[in-house]
UniProtKB/TrEMBL annotation:
Provenance organism: Actinotignum schaalii FB123-CNA-2
Top-level taxon of the source organism: Bacteria
Source species taxonomy: Bacteria, Bacillati, Actinomycetota, Actinomycetes, Actinomycetales
Membrane-spanning parts: 67-91, 138-169, 181-204, 224-246, 258-277, 289-311
Protein name: YihY family protein
Coiled coil ranges: none
Length: 426
């Protein structure tokens, strides 16, 4: 039974082994008191750390997901103006003459982004009429639109980088034009997705209830079914938006099963904070310190929650292995000066490190473990000569290694230059 439960939660091999160790059997079953409780507690903790959710949260923490989410929320606070300006301008040019529909859309946007637009009561941060791109100068309109698009693309670039970090992808080789296109597309899809989900939640629900009442299908059960249907429709839109941003904007290729499962989970959580979170985060206005900035604080908190959900779901999709935890400072050169890779000390370039980020990789072989044998100093002429010879050869070996790496890099650079020249000639 435990194995089936572990499989359902995606527990890794180490966690399943810990669960079997913790199960009482034989001599272990005879354990009692503190010893038995401690053993079972350790086994349970190791098992829990092996679940897919905990491994995903571990990747989220190691990749500084909370910090990235805060940066995304802060940047998005400014980029939202771009999204609303473009979307609202298009809406007013097409369907904005209908006053009732306009009020419905304002309510829908405020349901998705609490307190962002002024409604009929006059409450809200932004007057919708100020968002319309208009004016006598076409040049000014073009410049304003370009600035808005650049702002929006910047936030999409940050979101793409943060999502890549959740998958352990720190660098991608991509065409610049294609990258710009997908960032712009991601921004448009994200803006339309948020607006569509909000409209579905406010408009479709009321229209559906009205139609069902008109045909005589009324009652608590019907209303509950309508709410569930609206919830699922909005969640479907959110799932499609998440999938587009991860696959195309961020360039992450996720296996189908993980992709669908993660997107569905993210959509469910986003729908939950849309339904419940709007009223929950609106309680910010009750804080005397934040009351003058209630709308901005509420919006910033909502964006932070949404960003955290997207990044946590991305880490869950990645299904990463359990993070290695260094057991000894020497594994990460903790007692060495410097304890990082730097060109100032060329010897550090020989240490195992990530060539993209420059981060040190752990070296379990460096762990001190047992105390090293203390050997006497070999002095005298013979000892000094032997020590100096060893130091000289070690220094030459390091220099030779560096020169070999430079020579290899020069050779590879020549190969690439030759390949480019041949492609041009052909």
């Amino acid at each position: 039974m435990m194995d089936g439960f572990s499989q359902a939660l995606g527990v890794d091999r180490q966690g399943r082994h810990a669960a079997r160790r913790g199960a009482p059997s034989g001599e272990q079953g005879a354990e009692s008191g503190i010893v038995g409780v401690v053993r079972k507690g350790k086994a349970l903790a190791e098992w829990a750390q092996g679940t897919r959710i905990m491994r995903g949260l571990g990747r989220y923490g190691k990749a500084r997901g909370g910090l990235l989410a805060g940066g995304i929320a802060y940047s998005a606070l400014f980029a939202i103006t771009a999204a609303l300006t473009i979307t609202w301008t298009v809406f007013m040019a097409t369907l904005g003459r209908n006053a009732q529909l306009r009020e419905t859309v304002v309510d829908a946007v405020n349901a998705a982004l609490p307190g962002i637009l002024q409604d009929s009561s006059g409450e809200g941060l932004i007057n919708p009429d100020d968002l319309i791109l208009s004016g006598t100068s076409a040049v000014a309109t073009i410049i304003a639109g370009a600035v808005l698009l650049w702002t929006a693309m910047s936030i999409m670039a940050g979101l793409s980088t943060a999502i890549g970090a959740m998958f352990g992808v720190n660098q991608r080789t991509e065409n610049g034009v294609v990258s710009i296109f997908f960032r712009l597309a991601g921004f448009v899809v994200l803006a339309l997705g948020i607006l569509t989900s909000a409209i579905i939640g406010s408009l479709v629900g009321s229209v559906g209830t009205m139609l069902l009442t008109h045909v005589g299908m009324d009652g608590a059960f019907v209303q509950f079914g309508t709410k569930i249907a609206v919830f699922l429709l909005a969640a479907t839109v959110d799932a499609l938006v998440i999938m587009f941003i991860i696959r195309f904007t961020s360039g992450i290729r996720v296996p189908r099963r993980d992709f669908i499962t993660g997107a569905a989970l993210g959509a469910f959580l986003l729908s939950i904070i849309r339904v419940v979170g709007t009223s929950a985060v609106s309680n910010v206005s009750g804080n005397p310190l934040l009351a003058p900035f209630a709308a901005i604080a509420t919006l910033l908190l909502w964006l932070n929650l949404a960003s955290r959900i997207v990044l946590m779901v991305s880490a869950y999709m990645a299904n990463p292995p359990r993070a290695y935890v260094a057991q000894d400072p020497e594994e990460l050169r903790g007692t060495t000066t410097p304890n990082y890779v730097t060109l100032s000390v060329p010897e550090t370039l020989m240490w195992p490190h990530d060539p993209i980020t420059g981060s040190l990789l752990p070296e379990p072989d460096n762990a001190t473990g047992e105390e090293e044998e203390e050997l006497p100093e070999w002095g005298g002429l013979a000892g000094n000569l032997a020590r100096r010879r060893a130091e000289k050869l070690e220094s030459k070996a390091r220099e030779a290694q560096l020169k070999a790496e430079e020579a290899r890099a020069h050779y590879v650079s020549g190969q690439r230059e030759l390949a480019r020249s041949q492609r041009k000639d052909s």
